[in-house]
Amino acid sequence: MPEAFSPAPCETGIFRKDQATFVSLTKGGKGYGYTFSDGTVGNTQDAGALVACGKDELLVGGWERWPKVALLESDTRFESHGVMLAGRLMEAPGAGKDTPLVVYAHGSEGSGWIDRARDPYQMVGRGVSVFVYDKRGSGLSEGEYTQNFPRLADDLVAASREARRLAQGRHGRFGLLGVSQGGWIVPLAQARAKADFIGIGYGLAVDIAEQDAAQVAREMRERGYGDDIVAKARGATDITARLVKSGYKDGLDDLSVFQQQFGKEPWFVLIKGGYTGVLLGMPVEELRNHGVPQFDKLGVDWSQDPVQVLRQVTVPQLWALAEEDHQAPPAVTVERLTALRGQGQAISIYLFPQTDHGMRSYAQAPDGTRKPTVITPGFYDLMADWVKGRVQGNYGQAYRK
Description:
Elements: E1 13-16, E2 22-27, E3 32-36, E4 41-43, E5 51-54, E6 57-60, E7 64-67, E8 72-80, E9 83-91, E10 101-105, H1 118-124, E11 129-133, H2 149-166, E12 174-179, H3 182-193, E13 197-201, H4 208-222, H5 227-245, H6 252-262, H7 276-280, H8 284-290, H9 293-296, H10 306-311, E14 317-322, H11 331-342, E15 347-352, E16 355-356, E17 360-364, E18 370-375, H12 379-388, E19 399-400
Helix pairs in contact: 2-3, 4-5, 5-6
């Protein structure tokens, strides 16, 4: 008779049912987050959680016992620009000279990824070795949090050197994967990191100001406003783009006029974007004298042109995009990537319908609000197959552009 299941404290890792089916466990805000290989997500503290933790196993669905996979995990610290960063190489059993190795560049969040990010575990569960690190100012890493893309790209290059050192003799193809903001970082690092390929999830080929403008236009349309109001909102984003790119010198008078002209309109307070809503709500004199400390301390390099950067990438690229992405609307990115492909770049583009930022499928309420559900089916399979160099067949409902 099998031994009875005994609850035990949760541990991060991969728990496998069979060769194709597994679940990963990562630290969350409360309890532990779980992500099944089919994209089902939840938390161990949720009512009706699908998993319960035991010693080196999980109880899944109340009756199946899935054992923990014995990953080889190598923790390390490495230096970049005088800052010590924390990293971890994760390898599945049997990793060898033909096993692909990737380094992740994560998004704009301020939290670390070691033990917390689901994506690396989903790749390892699919037979890919992964080096993951906490970016500067987050998790176990030192330094100040920044959104300076060149500096973050330097960190990614340093992480790539460390990954190759730790996995020496136990890896084949080497590449970089980036999600969200990582889509700006990876192309900047590719050549220096000596990556054989890159893969981007829900990233952009537009700059930060263009992203902000696209977000604002989408906000207005989703609130039911027509072309006239969208055009006025575009006037706001044109002004705020000049402001941020000039260090709050170019556009202050125009901002003041805009605030006086439209400040009492019902749509004015609905504008958010990435930063435009904050600037619209600030007195001009405060901007003139103090700027926006919460933005300025991020060290954004406004000179970055993602298309110019992508023109320098000579290796194959995969872009997996969320078709209904609120945060990173993909339309212009698709146009630009298609144009680059027409100029000879090796670019594959997949769009996932009914999918929002983070590759989350969603249920939409009558008022337009969205409730995230699963990680859209096929996304992780596509990324893993790309890393292995064998993309083929269908990936959920995704279609190629």
